[in-house]
Protein backbone atom coordinates (compact mmCIF):
# COMPACT_ATOMS: atom_id res chain seq x y z
CA UNK A 1 0.00 0.00 0.00
CA UNK A 2 1.42 3.40 -0.96
CA UNK A 3 0.91 6.35 1.35
CA UNK A 4 0.43 9.78 -0.19
CA UNK A 5 2.20 12.53 1.75
CA UNK A 6 0.19 15.05 -0.23
CA UNK A 7 -3.09 13.70 1.16
CA UNK A 8 -1.71 13.51 4.70
CA UNK A 9 -0.49 17.09 4.43
CA UNK A 10 -3.83 18.26 2.97
CA UNK A 11 -5.73 16.81 5.94
CA UNK A 12 -3.18 18.25 8.37
CA UNK A 13 -3.36 21.69 6.77
CA UNK A 14 -7.15 21.64 6.89
CA UNK A 15 -7.17 20.56 10.55
CA UNK A 16 -4.64 23.23 11.49
CA UNK A 17 -6.79 25.94 9.90
CA UNK A 18 -9.97 24.49 11.40
CA UNK A 19 -8.54 24.08 14.89
CA UNK A 20 -7.12 27.62 14.91
CA UNK A 21 -10.73 28.81 14.70
CA UNK A 22 -12.03 26.35 17.27
CA UNK A 23 -11.21 27.82 20.68
CA UNK A 24 -13.45 25.32 22.51
CA UNK A 25 -10.98 22.58 21.64
CA UNK A 26 -7.65 24.35 21.21
CA UNK A 27 -7.87 26.25 24.52
CA UNK A 28 -7.27 22.96 26.38
CA UNK A 29 -3.52 23.58 25.89
CA UNK A 30 -3.79 26.25 28.60
CA UNK A 31 -4.48 23.60 31.26
CA UNK A 32 -1.02 21.93 31.40
CA UNK A 33 0.71 25.29 30.91
CA UNK A 34 -1.13 26.70 33.95
CA UNK A 35 -0.25 23.58 35.94
CA UNK A 36 3.38 24.00 34.89
CA UNK A 37 3.39 27.58 36.22
CA UNK A 38 1.83 26.44 39.49
CA UNK A 39 4.29 23.61 40.05
CA UNK A 40 7.37 25.44 38.79
CA UNK A 41 7.77 27.06 42.24
CA UNK A 42 7.82 23.68 44.03
CA UNK A 43 11.30 22.70 42.90
CA UNK A 44 12.77 20.03 40.65
CA UNK A 45 10.59 17.03 41.59
CA UNK A 46 10.41 14.32 38.94
CA UNK A 47 6.88 13.25 39.95
CA UNK A 48 5.63 16.78 39.35
CA UNK A 49 7.35 17.02 35.98
CA UNK A 50 5.64 13.82 34.92
CA UNK A 51 2.31 14.86 36.37
CA UNK A 52 2.40 17.74 33.88
CA UNK A 53 3.70 15.56 31.05
CA UNK A 54 0.98 12.94 31.62
CA UNK A 55 -1.66 15.64 31.94
CA UNK A 56 -0.50 17.08 28.62
CA UNK A 57 -0.73 13.68 26.97
CA UNK A 58 -4.20 13.02 28.37
CA UNK A 59 -5.63 16.49 27.82
CA UNK A 60 -3.88 17.92 24.77
CA UNK A 61 -3.11 14.72 22.82
CA UNK A 62 -6.12 12.55 23.63
CA UNK A 63 -8.72 15.28 24.15
CA UNK A 64 -7.94 17.29 21.01
CA UNK A 65 -7.72 14.12 18.92
CA UNK A 66 -11.01 12.88 20.36
CA UNK A 67 -12.74 16.21 19.70
CA UNK A 68 -11.54 16.61 16.10
CA UNK A 69 -12.57 13.06 15.21
CA UNK A 70 -15.94 13.43 16.96
CA UNK A 71 -16.57 16.67 15.10
CA UNK A 72 -15.78 15.01 11.74
CA UNK A 73 -18.40 12.41 12.65
CA UNK A 74 -20.93 14.92 13.91
CA UNK A 75 -20.69 17.08 10.77
CA UNK A 76 -20.62 14.05 8.42
CA UNK A 77 -17.25 15.13 7.02
CA UNK A 78 -15.50 11.92 8.07
CA UNK A 79 -17.66 10.00 5.60
CA UNK A 80 -16.51 12.41 2.88
CA UNK A 81 -12.89 11.54 3.69
CA UNK A 82 -13.72 7.84 3.82
CA UNK A 83 -15.33 8.02 0.37
CA UNK A 84 -12.35 9.86 -1.08
CA UNK A 85 -9.22 8.07 -2.36
CA UNK A 86 -7.52 8.78 1.00
CA UNK A 87 -6.70 5.53 2.81
CA UNK A 88 -7.10 4.73 6.50
CA UNK A 89 -3.39 5.38 7.31
CA UNK A 90 -3.50 8.65 5.34
CA UNK A 91 -6.66 9.88 7.08
CA UNK A 92 -5.63 8.87 10.59
CA UNK A 93 -2.04 10.13 10.19
CA UNK A 94 -3.25 13.41 8.72
CA UNK A 95 -5.78 13.79 11.49
CA UNK A 96 -3.22 13.00 14.22
CA UNK A 97 -0.55 15.47 13.14
CA UNK A 98 -2.16 18.59 14.59
CA UNK A 99 -2.70 16.93 17.99
CA UNK A 100 0.85 15.60 17.90
CA UNK A 101 2.42 18.96 17.04
CA UNK A 102 0.35 20.78 19.66
CA UNK A 103 1.42 18.15 22.20
CA UNK A 104 5.11 18.60 21.38
CA UNK A 105 4.86 22.40 21.56
CA UNK A 106 2.93 22.24 24.87
CA UNK A 107 5.40 19.74 26.35
CA UNK A 108 8.39 21.88 25.37
CA UNK A 109 6.74 25.01 26.81
CA UNK A 110 5.82 23.19 30.04
CA UNK A 111 9.32 21.71 30.41
CA UNK A 112 10.82 25.15 29.92
CA UNK A 113 8.52 26.59 32.58
CA UNK A 114 9.23 23.83 35.11
CA UNK A 115 12.89 23.66 34.17
CA UNK A 116 12.87 19.90 33.55
CA UNK A 117 16.07 18.66 31.93
CA UNK A 118 15.98 14.89 31.41
CA UNK A 119 19.17 12.92 32.00
CA UNK A 120 18.75 11.30 28.59
CA UNK A 121 16.75 13.62 26.37
CA UNK A 122 16.78 11.34 23.33
CA UNK A 123 15.49 8.31 25.22
CA UNK A 124 12.87 10.31 27.13
CA UNK A 125 11.73 11.96 23.88
CA UNK A 126 11.39 8.53 22.29
CA UNK A 127 9.31 7.16 25.18
CA UNK A 128 7.08 10.23 25.29
CA UNK A 129 6.57 9.95 21.54
CA UNK A 130 5.68 6.28 21.96
CA UNK A 131 3.20 7.26 24.68
CA UNK A 132 1.79 9.91 22.33
CA UNK A 133 0.85 7.15 19.89
CA UNK A 134 -1.25 5.52 22.59
CA UNK A 135 -3.01 8.78 23.49
CA UNK A 136 -3.64 9.55 19.81
CA UNK A 137 -5.17 6.10 19.33
CA UNK A 138 -7.23 6.53 22.51
CA UNK A 139 -8.52 9.92 21.36
CA UNK A 140 -9.32 8.61 17.89
CA UNK A 141 -11.09 5.58 19.34
CA UNK A 142 -13.27 7.64 21.69
CA UNK A 143 -13.97 10.16 18.92
CA UNK A 144 -15.12 7.35 16.65
CA UNK A 145 -17.29 5.82 19.37
CA UNK A 146 -19.11 9.05 20.22
CA UNK A 147 -21.59 10.94 18.07
CA UNK A 148 -20.94 14.58 18.95
CA UNK A 149 -18.16 16.79 20.27
CA UNK A 150 -20.13 17.42 23.45
CA UNK A 151 -20.60 13.69 24.03
CA UNK A 152 -16.89 13.11 23.31
CA UNK A 153 -15.89 15.86 25.77
CA UNK A 154 -17.83 14.09 28.52
CA UNK A 155 -16.82 10.53 27.65
CA UNK A 156 -13.11 11.38 27.67
CA UNK A 157 -13.17 12.91 31.18
CA UNK A 158 -12.66 9.65 33.16
CA UNK A 159 -9.87 8.69 30.75
CA UNK A 160 -8.25 12.10 31.23
CA UNK A 161 -8.38 11.58 34.97
CA UNK A 162 -7.10 8.00 34.82
CA UNK A 163 -4.26 8.67 32.39
CA UNK A 164 -3.51 12.19 33.59
CA UNK A 165 -3.50 11.61 37.34
CA UNK A 166 -3.65 7.79 37.59
CA UNK A 167 0.04 7.48 38.45
CA UNK A 168 -0.67 9.44 41.66
CA UNK A 169 -2.78 6.51 42.87
CA UNK A 170 0.25 4.20 42.92
CA UNK A 171 1.07 4.74 46.64
CA UNK A 172 -2.43 3.42 47.41
CA UNK A 173 -1.91 0.11 45.58
CA UNK A 174 -0.51 -1.67 48.66
CA UNK A 175 -3.58 -0.77 50.70
CA UNK A 176 -6.18 -1.27 47.99
CA UNK A 177 -5.53 -4.33 45.84
CA UNK A 178 -8.26 -3.26 43.44
CA UNK A 179 -5.97 -0.43 42.31
CA UNK A 180 -3.29 -2.93 41.21
CA UNK A 181 -4.00 -2.14 37.56
CA UNK A 182 -2.61 1.38 38.10
CA UNK A 183 0.90 -0.08 38.00
CA UNK A 184 0.36 -1.14 34.40
CA UNK A 185 -1.05 2.12 33.11
CA UNK A 186 1.11 3.78 30.44
CA UNK A 187 1.40 6.95 32.52
CA UNK A 188 2.68 5.01 35.56
CA UNK A 189 5.11 3.14 33.34
CA UNK A 190 6.36 6.45 31.92
CA UNK A 191 7.07 7.79 35.43
CA UNK A 192 8.86 4.60 36.50
CA UNK A 193 10.88 4.60 33.32
CA UNK A 194 11.85 8.24 33.85
CA UNK A 195 13.07 7.45 37.38
CA UNK A 196 15.24 4.62 36.05
CA UNK A 197 16.67 6.82 33.32
CA UNK A 198 17.46 9.52 35.88
CA UNK A 199 19.26 6.86 37.95
CA UNK A 200 21.39 6.06 34.91
CA UNK A 201 20.02 2.53 34.42
CA UNK A 202 20.47 0.96 30.98
CA UNK A 203 18.09 -0.61 28.49
CA UNK A 204 18.10 -3.94 30.39
CA UNK A 205 16.09 -2.27 33.18
CA UNK A 206 13.87 -0.28 30.85
CA UNK A 207 12.61 -2.81 28.33
CA UNK A 208 9.70 -4.11 30.47
CA UNK A 209 8.29 -0.57 30.78
CA UNK A 210 8.75 0.01 27.06
CA UNK A 211 7.03 -3.32 26.32
CA UNK A 212 4.01 -2.39 28.47
CA UNK A 213 3.67 1.04 26.83
CA UNK A 214 4.06 -0.58 23.40
CA UNK A 215 1.33 -3.10 24.28
CA UNK A 216 -1.02 -0.23 25.12
CA UNK A 217 -0.14 1.38 21.77
CA UNK A 218 -0.78 -1.84 19.83
CA UNK A 219 -4.05 -2.70 21.59
CA UNK A 220 -5.41 0.85 21.22
CA UNK A 221 -4.36 0.97 17.55
CA UNK A 222 -6.00 -2.38 16.74
CA UNK A 223 -9.21 -1.30 18.47
CA UNK A 224 -9.13 2.04 16.62
CA UNK A 225 -8.70 0.38 13.22
CA UNK A 226 -11.50 -2.07 14.02
CA UNK A 227 -13.91 0.71 15.02
CA UNK A 228 -12.85 2.86 12.03
CA UNK A 229 -13.63 -0.02 9.67
CA UNK A 230 -17.04 -0.40 11.32
CA UNK A 231 -17.68 3.33 10.90
CA UNK A 232 -17.00 3.10 7.15
CA UNK A 233 -20.28 1.22 6.87
CA UNK A 234 -23.78 2.23 7.90
CA UNK A 235 -24.91 -1.30 8.86
CA UNK B 1 -23.51 -0.51 -24.49
CA UNK B 2 -21.44 -1.39 -21.44
CA UNK B 3 -23.24 -1.52 -18.09
CA UNK B 4 -21.67 0.68 -15.43
CA UNK B 5 -24.04 -0.54 -12.71
CA UNK B 6 -25.56 -4.02 -12.59
CA UNK B 7 -27.96 -4.91 -9.79
CA UNK B 8 -29.54 -8.35 -9.40
CA UNK B 9 -32.17 -9.34 -6.83
CA UNK B 10 -30.77 -6.89 -4.29
CA UNK B 11 -32.31 -6.90 -0.82
CA UNK B 12 -31.59 -4.98 2.35
CA UNK B 13 -33.27 -5.66 5.66
CA UNK B 14 -32.73 -3.49 8.75
CA UNK B 15 -33.87 -5.48 11.79
CA UNK B 16 -37.40 -6.49 10.85
CA UNK B 17 -37.85 -3.74 8.27
CA UNK B 18 -37.33 -4.44 4.59
CA UNK B 19 -35.70 -1.46 2.89
CA UNK B 20 -35.08 -3.14 -0.48
CA UNK B 21 -36.64 -6.27 -1.89
CA UNK B 22 -35.57 -8.08 -5.03
CA UNK B 23 -34.35 -4.95 -6.79
CA UNK B 24 -32.79 -5.48 -10.24
CA UNK B 25 -31.68 -2.91 -12.79
CA UNK B 26 -28.75 -1.85 -14.96
CA UNK B 27 -27.31 1.54 -15.76
CA UNK B 28 -25.51 1.90 -19.07
CA UNK B 29 -22.41 4.03 -19.60
CA UNK B 30 -23.44 7.63 -20.29
CA UNK B 31 -27.01 7.09 -19.13
CA UNK B 32 -28.93 9.06 -16.49
CA UNK B 33 -31.14 6.77 -14.45
CA UNK B 34 -33.57 8.32 -12.01
CA UNK B 35 -34.80 6.48 -8.93
CA UNK B 36 -38.14 8.01 -8.04
CA UNK B 37 -39.89 7.38 -4.80
CA UNK B 38 -41.20 8.98 -1.63
CA UNK B 39 -39.09 9.27 1.52
CA UNK B 40 -38.33 5.86 2.97
CA UNK B 41 -38.80 4.02 -0.31
CA UNK B 42 -35.20 2.76 -0.39
CA UNK B 43 -33.54 5.32 -2.69
CA UNK B 44 -30.74 6.33 -0.32
CA UNK B 45 -30.23 2.72 0.77
CA UNK B 46 -29.63 1.81 -2.89
CA UNK B 47 -27.03 4.57 -3.27
CA UNK B 48 -25.30 3.55 -0.06
CA UNK B 49 -25.03 -0.07 -1.21
CA UNK B 50 -23.73 0.99 -4.62
CA UNK B 51 -21.08 3.22 -3.06
CA UNK B 52 -19.86 0.68 -0.49
CA UNK B 53 -21.43 2.37 2.54
CA UNK B 54 -23.88 -0.45 3.25
CA UNK B 55 -23.74 -4.20 2.81
CA UNK B 56 -26.69 -5.79 1.02
CA UNK B 57 -28.56 -8.51 2.90
CA UNK B 58 -28.76 -10.60 -0.26
CA UNK B 59 -28.44 -10.26 -4.01
CA UNK B 60 -25.63 -8.84 -6.07
CA UNK B 61 -24.57 -5.41 -7.22
CA UNK B 62 -21.61 -4.54 -9.43
CA UNK B 63 -20.29 -1.06 -10.16
CA UNK B 64 -17.64 -0.84 -12.91
CA UNK B 65 -17.55 -4.64 -12.68
CA UNK B 66 -16.61 -4.57 -8.98
CA UNK B 67 -18.83 -6.33 -6.47
CA UNK B 68 -20.10 -4.34 -3.48
CA UNK B 69 -17.54 -5.99 -1.22
CA UNK B 70 -14.67 -4.47 -3.24
CA UNK B 71 -15.90 -0.89 -3.45
CA UNK B 72 -13.44 0.49 -0.92
CA UNK B 73 -10.47 0.56 -3.24
CA UNK B 74 -8.83 3.86 -4.08
CA UNK B 75 -9.21 3.58 -7.87
CA UNK B 76 -12.93 2.95 -7.57
CA UNK B 77 -13.35 6.01 -5.38
CA UNK B 78 -11.58 8.18 -7.94
CA UNK B 79 -14.13 7.13 -10.55
CA UNK B 80 -17.25 8.00 -8.56
CA UNK B 81 -18.74 11.16 -7.09
CA UNK B 82 -21.24 10.81 -4.25
CA UNK B 83 -23.71 13.36 -2.95
CA UNK B 84 -25.97 11.99 -0.22
CA UNK B 85 -27.88 13.31 2.75
CA UNK B 86 -24.90 12.53 4.97
CA UNK B 87 -22.37 14.59 3.02
CA UNK B 88 -20.87 17.37 5.13
CA UNK B 89 -18.62 20.41 4.94
CA UNK B 90 -16.16 22.07 7.31
CA UNK B 91 -18.19 24.93 8.78
CA UNK B 92 -15.30 27.13 9.93
CA UNK B 93 -13.53 27.03 6.58
CA UNK B 94 -14.32 28.92 3.40
CA UNK B 95 -15.87 27.33 0.33
CA UNK B 96 -12.44 27.55 -1.33
CA UNK B 97 -10.65 25.80 1.57
CA UNK B 98 -13.26 23.03 1.62
CA UNK B 99 -12.79 22.42 -2.09
CA UNK B 100 -9.00 22.75 -1.92
CA UNK B 101 -8.86 19.85 0.54
CA UNK B 102 -10.67 17.66 -1.96
CA UNK B 103 -8.46 18.88 -4.82
CA UNK B 104 -5.47 17.60 -2.83
CA UNK B 105 -7.18 14.34 -1.87
CA UNK B 106 -8.07 13.62 -5.51
CA UNK B 107 -4.84 15.10 -6.89
CA UNK B 108 -6.74 17.68 -8.93
CA UNK B 109 -5.27 21.14 -9.69
CA UNK B 110 -6.87 23.94 -7.67
CA UNK B 111 -7.77 25.70 -10.94
CA UNK B 112 -10.63 23.19 -11.11
CA UNK B 113 -12.32 24.99 -8.19
CA UNK B 114 -13.36 27.93 -10.40
CA UNK B 115 -14.78 25.55 -12.98
CA UNK B 116 -17.03 23.64 -10.56
CA UNK B 117 -18.11 26.80 -8.76
CA UNK B 118 -19.20 28.23 -12.10
CA UNK B 119 -21.25 25.13 -12.68
CA UNK B 120 -23.12 25.59 -9.39
CA UNK B 121 -23.36 29.37 -9.71
CA UNK B 122 -21.09 30.23 -6.77
CA UNK B 123 -18.08 31.81 -8.49
CA UNK B 124 -18.24 35.02 -6.48
CA UNK B 125 -18.74 33.30 -3.13
CA UNK B 126 -15.63 31.17 -2.80
CA UNK B 127 -14.23 33.19 0.12
CA UNK B 128 -17.44 32.88 2.13
CA UNK B 129 -17.25 30.83 5.30
CA UNK B 130 -19.43 27.73 5.08
CA UNK B 131 -21.22 28.41 8.40
CA UNK B 132 -22.67 31.58 6.86
CA UNK B 133 -24.19 29.85 3.83
CA UNK B 134 -27.87 29.18 3.22
CA UNK B 135 -29.12 25.60 2.87
CA UNK B 136 -29.31 25.96 -0.89
CA UNK B 137 -25.75 27.29 -1.10
CA UNK B 138 -24.50 24.43 1.06
CA UNK B 139 -26.15 21.96 -1.29
CA UNK B 140 -24.45 23.64 -4.25
CA UNK B 141 -21.02 23.54 -2.56
CA UNK B 142 -21.53 19.83 -1.85
CA UNK B 143 -22.43 19.30 -5.48
CA UNK B 144 -19.34 21.25 -6.58
CA UNK B 145 -17.20 19.05 -4.35
CA UNK B 146 -18.78 15.94 -5.87
CA UNK B 147 -17.89 17.14 -9.39
CA UNK B 148 -14.37 18.32 -8.59
CA UNK B 149 -12.50 15.24 -9.83
CA UNK B 150 -14.58 14.68 -13.00
CA UNK B 151 -16.07 11.38 -11.84
CA UNK B 152 -17.20 8.94 -14.51
CA UNK B 153 -20.20 7.99 -12.39
CA UNK B 154 -22.22 10.36 -10.24
CA UNK B 155 -24.49 9.25 -7.41
CA UNK B 156 -26.77 12.15 -6.60
CA UNK B 157 -29.29 11.81 -3.80
CA UNK B 158 -31.91 14.56 -4.20
CA UNK B 159 -29.33 17.01 -5.66
CA UNK B 160 -31.65 20.00 -5.96
CA UNK B 161 -33.95 19.36 -3.00
CA UNK B 162 -32.93 22.57 -1.19
CA UNK B 163 -32.61 24.81 -4.24
CA UNK B 164 -34.80 27.55 -5.67
CA UNK B 165 -36.13 27.06 -9.23
CA UNK B 166 -33.49 29.33 -10.83
CA UNK B 167 -30.59 27.47 -9.25
CA UNK B 168 -32.22 24.09 -9.90
CA UNK B 169 -32.43 25.03 -13.58
CA UNK B 170 -28.78 26.09 -13.59
CA UNK B 171 -27.72 22.80 -11.95
CA UNK B 172 -29.89 20.78 -14.35
CA UNK B 173 -28.19 22.46 -17.30
CA UNK B 174 -24.78 21.65 -15.81
CA UNK B 175 -25.72 18.03 -15.18
CA UNK B 176 -27.06 17.66 -18.71
CA UNK B 177 -23.76 19.03 -20.06
CA UNK B 178 -21.81 16.53 -17.96
CA UNK B 179 -24.08 13.75 -19.17
CA UNK B 180 -23.54 14.86 -22.78
CA UNK B 181 -19.80 14.59 -22.14
CA UNK B 182 -20.27 10.96 -21.10
CA UNK B 183 -20.76 11.08 -17.31
CA UNK B 184 -23.13 8.39 -16.08
CA UNK B 185 -25.59 9.66 -13.50
CA UNK B 186 -27.57 7.71 -10.93
CA UNK B 187 -30.04 10.13 -9.47
CA UNK B 188 -32.68 9.84 -6.78
CA UNK B 189 -35.44 12.38 -6.58
CA UNK B 190 -39.06 12.88 -5.77
CA UNK B 191 -39.19 15.87 -8.11
CA UNK B 192 -41.05 14.80 -11.23
CA UNK B 193 -39.90 17.67 -13.42
CA UNK B 194 -36.27 16.98 -12.45
CA UNK B 195 -36.72 13.35 -13.47
CA UNK B 196 -38.33 14.36 -16.78
CA UNK B 197 -35.63 16.92 -17.50
CA UNK B 198 -32.60 14.83 -16.67
CA UNK B 199 -33.35 11.14 -16.88
CA UNK B 200 -33.04 8.80 -19.84
CA UNK B 201 -34.90 6.20 -17.80
CA UNK B 202 -36.75 6.32 -14.51
CA UNK B 203 -37.47 3.61 -11.97
CA UNK B 204 -40.38 3.91 -9.58
CA UNK B 205 -39.35 2.67 -6.18
CA UNK B 206 -42.03 1.95 -3.63
CA UNK B 207 -41.79 -0.09 -0.42
CA UNK B 208 -38.32 -1.23 -1.42
CA UNK B 209 -39.39 -2.63 -4.80
CA UNK B 210 -38.89 -1.32 -8.32
CA UNK B 211 -42.47 -1.06 -9.58
CA UNK B 212 -41.70 0.24 -13.08
CA UNK B 213 -38.59 1.07 -15.08
CA UNK B 214 -38.60 2.72 -18.48
CA UNK B 215 -38.07 5.93 -20.42
CA UNK B 216 -40.29 8.78 -19.16
CA UNK B 217 -41.82 9.28 -22.62
CA UNK B 218 -42.64 5.61 -23.03
CA UNK B 219 -44.20 5.46 -19.58
CA UNK B 220 -46.38 8.49 -20.25
CA UNK B 221 -47.47 7.03 -23.58
CA UNK B 222 -48.11 3.62 -22.05
CA UNK B 223 -50.30 5.09 -19.30
CA UNK B 224 -52.00 7.63 -21.51
CA UNK B 225 -55.78 7.21 -22.00
CA UNK B 226 -55.36 8.46 -25.61
CA UNK B 227 -57.77 11.35 -25.14
CA UNK B 228 -57.31 14.92 -26.30
CA UNK B 229 -58.43 18.07 -24.50
CA UNK B 230 -59.56 20.97 -26.61
CA UNK B 231 -59.87 24.41 -25.01
CA UNK B 232 -62.39 26.62 -26.82
CA UNK B 233 -62.68 30.38 -26.99
CA UNK B 234 -66.00 30.30 -25.11
CA UNK B 235 -64.12 28.84 -22.08
CA UNK B 236 -65.24 25.24 -22.48
CA UNK B 237 -62.71 22.35 -22.24
CA UNK B 238 -63.75 19.31 -24.21
CA UNK B 239 -62.15 15.91 -23.81
CA UNK B 240 -62.21 13.95 -27.05
CA UNK B 241 -61.19 10.39 -27.83
CA UNK B 242 -58.08 9.93 -29.93
CA UNK B 243 -58.34 8.54 -33.44
CA UNK B 244 -60.57 9.58 -36.36
CA UNK B 245 -63.65 10.41 -34.27
CA UNK B 246 -61.78 12.99 -32.21
CA UNK B 247 -59.90 14.26 -35.25
CA UNK B 248 -63.14 15.12 -37.06
CA UNK B 249 -64.44 17.09 -34.09
CA UNK B 250 -61.17 18.97 -33.66
CA UNK B 251 -61.21 19.76 -37.38
CA UNK B 252 -64.70 21.21 -37.04
CA UNK B 253 -63.66 23.43 -34.13
CA UNK B 254 -60.52 24.51 -35.95
CA UNK B 255 -62.34 25.34 -39.15
CA UNK B 256 -64.80 27.56 -37.24
CA UNK B 257 -61.92 29.31 -35.42
CA UNK B 258 -63.10 28.30 -31.92
CA UNK B 259 -59.88 26.67 -30.64
CA UNK B 260 -57.53 28.20 -28.07
CA UNK B 261 -55.40 25.07 -27.47
CA UNK B 262 -55.24 21.32 -28.10
CA UNK B 263 -53.46 18.95 -25.68
CA UNK B 264 -52.93 15.21 -25.68
CA UNK B 265 -53.81 13.89 -22.23
CA UNK B 266 -50.61 12.13 -21.26
CA UNK B 267 -50.23 11.56 -17.51
CA UNK B 268 -47.32 13.06 -15.63
CA UNK B 269 -44.80 10.75 -13.98
CA UNK B 270 -46.44 11.73 -10.70
CA UNK B 271 -49.86 10.57 -11.98
CA UNK B 272 -48.37 7.27 -13.07
CA UNK B 273 -46.69 6.83 -9.70
CA UNK B 274 -50.02 7.35 -7.93
CA UNK B 275 -51.67 4.91 -10.36
CA UNK B 276 -49.10 2.22 -9.66
CA UNK B 277 -48.55 2.65 -5.93
CA UNK B 278 -51.67 4.38 -4.72
CA UNK B 279 -49.68 7.16 -3.04
CA UNK B 280 -48.15 10.52 -3.83
CA UNK B 281 -44.44 10.88 -4.51
CA UNK B 282 -43.69 13.51 -1.88
Structural class of chain A: mainly alpha
- What's the overall average pLDDT of chain B, rounded? 90
Question: Rough shape of chain A?
Answer: globular
Overall pLDDT score of chain A: 91
Largest sheet of chain B: 6 strands, mixed
Name of the top-level CATH class of the largest domain in chain B: Alpha Beta
Major sheet description of chain A: none
Q: Cα-atom Rg of chain B, whole angstroms? A: 22 Å
Proportion of helical residues of chain B: 25-40%
- What is the helix fraction of residues of chain A, given as a range? over 70%
The span between the termini of chain B is: 33 Å
State which percent range the strand residues of chain A make up.
under 5%
Helix count, DSSP H or I runs of 4 or more residues of chain A: 10
Which fold name corresponds to the CATH topology of the largest domain in chain B? Rossmann fold
List keywords for this structure.
heterodimer; A: 235 residues; mainly alpha; 10 helices; B: 282 residues; Rossmann fold; 2 domains; 13 strands
Short synopsis of the structure:
By secondary structure, chain A is mainly α. Chain A is 75% helix and 0% strand. In chain A, α4 runs antiparallel to α6 (88-114).
Amino acid sequence: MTVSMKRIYAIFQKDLKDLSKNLFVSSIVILPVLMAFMYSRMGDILDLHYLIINLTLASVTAFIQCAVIAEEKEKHTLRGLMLSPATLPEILTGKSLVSLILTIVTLVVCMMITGYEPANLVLISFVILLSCLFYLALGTLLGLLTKTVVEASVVILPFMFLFGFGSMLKPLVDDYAILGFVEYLPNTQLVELAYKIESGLGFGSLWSHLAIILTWVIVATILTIFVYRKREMDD
Amino acid sequence: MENVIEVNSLAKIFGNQTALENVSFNVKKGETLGFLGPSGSGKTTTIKILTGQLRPTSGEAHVFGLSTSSLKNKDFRKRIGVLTDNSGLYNRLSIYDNLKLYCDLYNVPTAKIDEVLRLVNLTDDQKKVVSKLSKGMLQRVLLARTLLHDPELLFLDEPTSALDPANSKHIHEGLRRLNDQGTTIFLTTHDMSEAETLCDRVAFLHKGKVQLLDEPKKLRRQYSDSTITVELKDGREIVLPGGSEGADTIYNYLSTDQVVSVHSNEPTLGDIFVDITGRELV
